[in-house]
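Hey team,

Filing this mostly as a record. A colleague (T.K.) asked me to run one chain through the structure pipeline before their review meeting, and I want the input and output archived in the tracker in case anyone asks later how it was produced. No errors, nothing strange. Just documentation.

Input sequence:
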Amino acid sequence: MATFYLILLISFISLEIFVDLPSVQELQNPKSNLATVIYSSDMKTLGKYYAENRVSVKYYELDKDLVNALIATEDARFWRTL
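Output structure:
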């Protein structure tokens, strides 16, 4: 059975199934779209540096109307399937 998996792996590699995998350098240095925030020693914000001003939020911090609007635009049948 191990021989079968080895042959399957070699076949995948030869067919370039794994071409879209990230390089080691991309894994070691991931890009983040979140803003970098600089704090003082007393935890006051000194500045923000960003290409796109994004921040991470928890689900419970999102407005309920926003969540419902996203669900309505993506799949109007969502609430009927629950």
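Quick notes for T.K.: The chain has three helices and two strands. The chain has one domain: 24-81.
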